[in-house]
Design goal:
Elements lengths: L9 E7 L8 H15 L6 E9 L4 E8 L2 H11 L5 E5 L6
Antiparallel strand pairs: 1-3, 1-4, 2-3
Length: 95
């Protein structure tokens, strides 16, 4: 990762609900990416970096590069999966 990547603002969206367990994480990620595409003109930086779920525990997480936590929260609501919590995160270099 270059020094430019070090300045990327990341946010962790968290969902804690058994209702999400009925939907594969790939479907949730697709809904989030569709929402991101419709909101792309509103911001400088907005991307779902990855989404994961914890099988059997009804937890799901999304890591976003975005301009603000509020924007991530709005993306989640627009996608039909309102986050229970959105917090600032720090991304470690891959190497």
């Amino acid at each position: 990762m270059g020094s430019e990547d070090a300045t990327v603002s990341c946010y962790l969206a968290e969902w804690y609900t058994p209702a999400l367990s009925a939907h594969p994480i790939a479907d949730i990620a697709r809904c989030l990416r569709q929402s991101l595409a419709t909101m792309a003109d509103e911001c400088r930086q907005l991307e779902l970096l990855y989404a994961v779920e914890v099988p059997g525990d009804a937890y799901a997480f999304g890591v976003f590069a975005a301009d603000s936590a509020d924007l991530v929260a709005r993306v989640c609501v627009h996608a039909g999966v309102p986050a229970d919590r959105v917090t600032a995160a720090t991304q470690a270099p891959r190497k």
